[in-house]
Every structure is written in structure tokens, then in C-alpha cells.
Design brief:
It is built from 14 helices and 17 strands. The chain is α/β, with parallel strands linked by helices and about 400 residues long. The protein folds into 2 domains: about 140 residues, Alpha-Beta Complex (Aspartate Aminotransferase, domain 1), CATH 3.90.1150.10; about 260 residues, 3-Layer(aba) Sandwich (Aspartate Aminotransferase, domain 2). Helix 7 links the parallel strand 7 and strand 8. The protein binds pyridoxal-5'-phosphate (PLP). It is an enzyme of class 2 (transferase).
Length: about 400
């Protein structure tokens, strides 16, 4: 059982006021809040051992290197990767996806097929469209149904021996749908295709085992799971990371440089050119330790309670429609009030100290499917409460009165 009142004390920001009202933070799908334990790790780094890593003989550099590599191992253990060198530090999910998409330029040829889904964030669409433009590969799309689920029989029909790569998210940021990724991965492997799973939205809700999934690439951002912005991870199976060429050239990623020929460093350094976000990587490790200590089973069952409660209370409002009604979903509620623009509701809620997101949530194909410009999205984290949901429901009622 999760003790939410104790947990909330770990997050300094949760006790602030916004527009004279206690902050109700329901924009967790965009970025999560940061506990004191992670803030302390950041302060500790800059106060005590700020130094560049890997090349230094001096004590500070060695301490920073040790902590950075320890964070890599924390991430490895969390995602159950086989090797620490399969964990590549990046600046986030977007960077991780671009790294892989760029690498596949060397592996795809004209007429090859790659598969995406309708439920994706733009960062899991656009880099692949760019890849298709460069290579002449063809982009196929798994459709969705009105519940916000992927149509798996259509996925089966898209797969063939031409399919080289499938990229889908684990959980949709716009609707909260949990996709059947194990089935997607197994079916892709049956035709010899590799799979990249965008775990940005899953990482705060579920503990993923990349070996059990047998996924080829899994990507996530620290800032969605209580860590800082500007750091994330690319997990890749060793055999795939060895096949991909480096993404960026520079320091740290080389074995030897001469003007005749440069040889590249071993994994993971081959993909980590330049000075990384050292403090961010260490704080990412601290964030994972924090969440693992609370436990993902406890987090999931508490968030499900919030989801059920919020869904039921919001649906009591007449004219309110929820988008994304899969039985398999996380604590994201995307909704609209009939005849009212989502932006106007978001603005009124902000006046009451309630932070939600309005718009297309970087997932325009989903909005096109429903023929709407956007939604109001309330996304709950394990530090939110039913009392806060009550405030949201009151706020939405008020907004409806003011706007209709
Ligand atoms: C947030 C998010 C991204 C983008 O992550 P960045 O940290 O902005 O790179 C991609 N996909 C999904 C599903 C997301 O929720």
C-alpha cells in the first residue's frame, strides 16, 4: 500500500500555490515532478564532485565517472538489460529515436517496409518519415479503433518479409492506452523485423523487462519518471547496437583519430559523443531508485484507483466525453466538453491552480481520427490524490458554466 501523504512530502513543488490556490498538478504525461531525493543528487553533484568523466586521473573526475557508470547500472538493472553497455545515455526519447532512425539509413533500401501505429507521439513518427525519404523505404500504419486501441488484425495483414522495422509506443501519451507490445514484438520477429518500443509514457507506470519482452530497442526519458529534463536512455540489444553506425562524431566516441582513418570506441561510448549530461545521468539513476523503492506494483494499483475514480466523477458531468476507453489503460484521461474549445477550459482551470494539458498532445493522427482539434488531458501520478480529482471535477463544472 502506498502512503500518498508521506510521498507528497518528498515533492517540494506540491506544496506551492498557483493563482492563490493549492497547485493541482495533472500534467504528468508531459513531465513529472521531482522528489527531494533527486534534487539532492543534483545539488550533491554540483556541490561536491562536478568534473568531466572518463578521461581524468584526478579524484573528482573519478568520483563523477563512478557515479555516472553506477547510474548506468541502475538503469540496466531496472530495465533488466543483459549488459550495461546496452544502455546508451541520450538527451531523451526524441534523441534516442533519432539515433536509431539515423542508423537504419545504412540498413534499409528502396522498397523495404517499416510499420508505425496511429497512436504515436510525433517523435515516433517524424524521424521515421525522414528515414523513409532518405532510403525510399515505405511507411505503413497500424490503424486504431474508436476505443483508442490498435487494430491487431490489420497489423497482421501489414507484416510480410518486406517488413524490416516496427516502431510503436508502449503506452499512448494522448489516450493512455497500453498497447500489446509483446504480441507486436513476437509477430514482427516472426517475419524477421526489428522492433523499437517508445517507452516514454510507460516508464512512470510500469517496470519493463527488456529481455522478457525480447525487444530490440526500448527508449525512455528521465523527466517522465521523476528525473530531470535533458537526459534519457536508449536500450538496444548488443547485436543491433553493433550493426548501427555511430550517430554523432566527436570526443568520447573514438578509439583512435588520425586524418587517414578514425576508429570508433566500443559500446556504449560509440554512441556517446561529447561531454554528456553527467549530472542528469546521475540524477536519472536517483529517480529510478526512488520509484523502485516505492515499487511499481504499488504505483500501478494506486494509479488505477485514481483512474477509476476520476473517470467515474468526470463522466457524471453532462456533455463530457472521454477519448481513449480501452480496458487496458493507464491514468490518463483525455476529454472534451461538448461545444467548448479545450484551450478555454485549460485556461480557466489554471486560474484555479489546476494544471492540465490542452491540444493535440503531439499526436495529431489521433485527433484526426476523432475529428477534433484536441482534448483536455488530465494525467495522474502516484503522488496525486482523490481530493485533487474532486477539485478538477469542480473546476470543469465551473468552466462549463462560464463557457456555455
Ligand atoms: C514525452 C513523449 C515523447 C517525447 O519525449 P521527450 O522527452 O520530449 O524526447 C515521446 N513519446 C511519448 C509516448 C511521450 O510520452
Amino acid at each position: 500500500m502506498l502512503k500518498v501523504e508521506n510521498i507528497r512530502k518528498d515533492f517540494p513543488i506540491l506544496s506551492r500555490h498557483v493563482n492563490g490556490k493549492p497547485l493541482v498538478y495533472f500534467d504528468n504525461a508531459a513531465t513529472s515532478q521531482t522528489p527531494q531525493q533527486v534534487i539532492d543528487a543534483i545539488v550533491d553533484y554540483y556541490s561536491n564532485y562536478n568534473a568531466n568523466i572518463h578521461r581524468g586521473v584526478h579524484t573528482l573526475s573519478q568520483e563523477a565517472t563512478d557515479k555516472y557508470e553506477a547510474a548506468r547500472q541502475t538503469i540496466q538493472n531496472h530495465f533488466n538489460a543483459k549488459h550495461a553497455h546496452e544502455i546508451i545515455f541520450t538527451s531523451g526519447t526524441t534523441h534516442s529515436i533519432n539515433l536509431v532512425a539515423n542508423g537504419f539509413s545504412a540498413l534499409l533500401k528502396k522498397g523495404d517496409e517499416v510499420i508505425v501505429s496511429t497512436l504515436e507521439h510525433h517523435s515516433n513518427i517524424v524521424p521515421w518519415q525522414m528515414l523513409c525519404e532518405r532510403t525510399g523505404a515505405i511507411l505503413k500504419v497500424i490503424p486504431m479503433n474508436v476505443e483508442g486501441e490498435l487494430v491487431m488484425s490489420d497489423y497482421d495483414a501489414l507484416l510480410s518479409n518486406k517488413t524490416k522495422l516496427v516502431f510503436v509506443n508502449h503506452i499512448s501519451n494522448a489516450l493512455g492506452t497500453i498497447n500489446p507490445i509483446k504480441e507486436i514484438i513476437d509477430k514482427a520477429h516472426n517475419v524477421g523485423a526489428a522492433v523499437l518500443v517508445d517507452g516514454a509514457q510507460a516508464c512512470p507506470h510500469v517496470k519493463t523487462d527488456v529481455q522478457a519482452l525480447d525487444v530490440d530497442f526500448y527508449v525512455a526519458s528521465a523527466h517522465k519518471m521523476c528525473g530531470p529534463t535533458g537526459v534519457g536512455v536508449l536500450y538496444g540489444k548488443e547485436v543491433w547496437l553493433n550493426k548501427l553506425p555511430p550517430y554523432q562524431g566527436g570526443g568520447e566516441m573514438i578509439a583512435e583519430v588520425t586524418f587517414k582513418k578514425t576508429t570508433y570506441a566500443e559500446l556504449p561510448h560509440k554512441f556517446e559523443a561529447g561531454t554528456p549530461n553527467i549530472c542528469g545521468g546521475i540524477a536519472f539513476g536517483a529517480a529510478i531508485n526512488y520509484m523502485d523503492n516505492i515499487g511499481f506494483d504499488a504505483i500501478a494499483s494506486y494509479e488505477n484507483e485514481l483512474l477509476d475514480y476520476g473517470t467515474q466523477k468526470l463522466l457524471e458531468i453532462e456533455g463530457l466525453k472521454i477519448y481513449g476507453t480501452s480496458k487496458h489503460k493507464t491514468s490518463v484521461i483525455s476529454f472534451n466538453l461538448e461545444g467548448i474549445h479545450p484551450y478555454d477550459v485549460g485556461t480557466i482551470l489554471d486560474k484555479m491552480g489546476i494544471a492540465v494539458r490542452t491540444g493535440h498532445h503531439c499526436a495529431q493522427p489521433i485527433m484526426d481520427f476523432y475529428k477534433i482539434p484536441g482534448t483536455i488531458r488530465a494525467s495522474f501520478a502516484f503522488y496525486n490524490t482523490k481530493t485533487e480529482i474532486d477539485a478538477l471535477v469542480e473546476g470543469v463544472k465551473k468552466a462549463k458554466m462560464m463557457l456555455s
